[in-house]
Specification:
Largest sheet: 3 strands, antiparallel
Number of helices: 10
Low-confidence stretches: none
Number of domains: 2
CATH topology of the largest domain: Ribonuclease iii, N-terminal Endonuclease Domain, Chain A
Shape: globular
Number of strands: 3
Order of helices and strands: HHHHHHHHHEEEH
Strand content: 5-15%
Structural class: mainly alpha
CATH class of the largest domain: Mainly Alpha
């Protein structure tokens, strides 16, 4: 990996911002590397942050689950599930990364740069998970736990108080489970646009029937909008 002085300087600034010093700064650079940049710079060998995002998603889930399980012993399983979903949703994570200025450090391809990628919720949310995974690999679980909870403490409190971001998928699943144990499934029915400006169209399916549709700049966003649409129809 050929690392420019500008990238190294940006990584130094970000480490000061989060008060964590990486032993291997390449992990942090990897966390900031969007697939669009990796594809445009294959000769420089910049891997995308998609694998880190995968790991970070799992690490985040166990950190938040462990925290709310231990700190809110009187809450039933359903409430714990709702709180966790609200905390780890795209909007919540994107809000945290915006506060840290993550967008300005992202390594983006030209297309993503031109279409507002630095402010895109899906990119910022994925970056949070990738950064968490990088810290986990660099400093193990306790370092990752400390950083994640520092970023999400207020978000967790809001979720417990019922003032956090709404997770429509969880709300829809709870709604249908009043009458059945069958899960709502989500199907991508169409994708439009180039890779750097793609829009996903999704439908929520229950008992083989489409009960809501939605679209978004990521599959997660489209699924949330499909669930929201389904709830609006069911409540009518």
């Amino acid at each position: 990996m050929k690392i420019s002085e500008e990238i190294l300087k940006n990584m130094e600034v970000f480490q000061e911002t989060i008060n964590y010093k990486f032993s291997d700064v390449k992990l942090l650079i990897n966390a900031f590397t969007h697939s669009s940049y990796a594809n445009e710079n294959k000769d420089a060998n910049y891997p995308s942050n998609e694998r880190l995002e995968f790991l970070g998603d799992a690490v985040l889930s166990i950190i938040v689950s462990d925290y709310i399980f231990k700190n809110y012993p009187d809450l039933p399983e359903g409430e714990l599930t709702r709180i966790r979903a609200s905390v780890v949703c795209e909007l919540s994570l994107a809000q945290c990364t915006k506060k840290l200025g993550v967008g300005k450090y992202m390594l983006l391809g030209k297309g993503e740069e031109l279409t507002g990628g630095r402010e895109r919720i899906s990119i910022l949310s994925d970056a949070f998970e990738a950064i968490l995974a990088a810290i986990y690999l660099d400093g193990q679980m306790e370092a990752a736990r400390k950083w994640a909870l520092e970023q999400l403490e207020d978000t967790i409190k809001s979720a417990v108080n019922g003032t956090g971001f709404k997770d429509y998928k969880t709300e829809l699943q709870e709604y249908v489970q009043k009458n059945s144990d069958e899960k709502v499934e989500y199907e991508v029915i169409e994708e439009k646009g180039p890779d750097h400006d793609k829009r996903f169209f999704v439908r929520a399916v229950y008992h083989g029937n489409s009960i809501g549709t939605g679209n978004g700049r990521s599959k997660k966003e489209a699924e949330q909008n499909a669930a929201k649409s389904a709830l609006e129809s069911l409540n009518k």
